[in-house]
């Protein structure tokens, strides 16, 4: 009986641990066009963070006044918009300057 109860209690944890694959459409264009559209267009978003893996770079563009954000994946030739949104918040570690 204890084994049964333990199994029932652990089942949700095991189910939550399973990976999920999500497919969603992304919009891609020449990198220069994407960067100019977001920095000079209606959004006025500026680069806030850039990171890279072994294949491409990722960038987070933000507008501090409107609190909009855009996440892109890019290389020298092409950039893809992975997500956009509103109401971004910044959590920085360490003292404020």
What does this structure look like?
The protein has 97 residues and is of the alpha+beta class. It has a domain at 22-85. Helices cover 26% and strands 34% of the residues. The chain has 2 helices and 5 strands. It has helices at residues 2-16, 31-40; strands at residues 27-30, 46-52, 57-63, 68-74, 78-85. β2 and β3 (57-63) form a beta hairpin. It is globular and about 60 Å long.
Report the major sheet: 5 strands, antiparallel
- Give the ordered list of helices and strands: HEHEEEE
Give the helix tally. Answer: 2
Number of strands: 5
For the largest sheet, list the strands in their spatial order: 1-5-4-3-2
Helix content: 25-40%
User: Termini, distance in Å?
Assistant: 60 Å
What is the CA-atom radius of gyration, in angstroms?
20 Å
Average of per-residue pLDDT values: 84
Kindly name the structural category: alpha+beta
> Strand fraction band?
25-35%
> Low-confidence spans: pLDDT under 50, at least 5 residues?
none
Shape: globular
């Amino acid at each position: 009986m204890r084994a049964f109860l333990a199994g029932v209690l652990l089942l949700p944890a095991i189910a939550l641990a399973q990976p999920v694959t999500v497919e969603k459409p992304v919009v891609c264009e020449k990198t220069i066009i994407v960067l100019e559209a977001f920095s000079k267009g209606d959004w006025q978003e500026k680069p806030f963070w850039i990171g890279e893996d072994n294949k491409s770079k990722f960038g987070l563009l933000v507008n501090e006044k409107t609190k909009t954000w855009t996440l892109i994946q890019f290389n020298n030739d092409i950039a893809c918009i992975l997500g956009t949104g509103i109401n971004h918040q910044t959590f920085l570690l360490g003292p404020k300057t």
